[in-house]
Specification:
117 residues; 4-stranded parallel sheet; 38% helix; binds nicotinamide-adenine-dinucleotide
């Protein structure tokens, strides 16, 4: 994965303010990877991410919901990859929205790349 991702292009981390999400954000920053953290703060807390404020590559927490297709579109179009730590089976419908948006954005990028050739 490290060879496929541009470090200055952020990785979208969903559920970033949760227990595992916070760890993923820290690990990515430690590896020099830019991060775009998103969380709806349903169970997570913005305070979990305070320690990363001001770190190179860290974008302040975006409060939003991955069931919001428009918001997902805006986030996914800014990033190079998506990390989705809250992979609870009960969240499958939410994942469908995010997965559809990722698919659309990738199709658009492929089309643009083909047009540039
Ligand atoms: N914590 C553990 O030790 C552990 C171990 C194994 C597996 N897991 C699994 O990993 C997943 C994450 O666990 P966790 O402990 O980090 O949970 P958590 O509740 O701390 O984190 C989940 C985060 O996702 C956010 N979230 C939920 N729905 C959202 C939505 N629709 N849009 C945006 N953000 C949303 C929550 O606000 C929260 O910050 C769970 O599926 C859990 O079952 C956790």
């Amino acid at each position: 994965m490290a060879d496929l991702i541009q470090r200055d292009e952020p990785i979208l981390v969903t559920g970033a303010a949760g227990f595992i999400g916070r760890w993923v954000v820290g690990e990515l920053l430690d590896r020099g990877q830019a991060v775009l953290p998103v969380d709806n703060l349903m169970t997570g807390a913005a305070a979990n991410l305070e320690e990363f404020e001001g770190r190179e590559g860290y974008t302040p927490l975006v409060v939003g919901d991955i069931r919001d297709a428009g918001a997902c579109q805006a986030w996914v179009s800014q990033v190079d990859a998506v990390a989705h730590p809250e992979n609870d089976l009960s969240l499958v419908p939410e994942l469908r929205v995010l997965a559809r948006v990722i698919d659309n954005v990738l199709r658009g990028r492929r089309r643009e790349a083909a047009e540039d050739r």
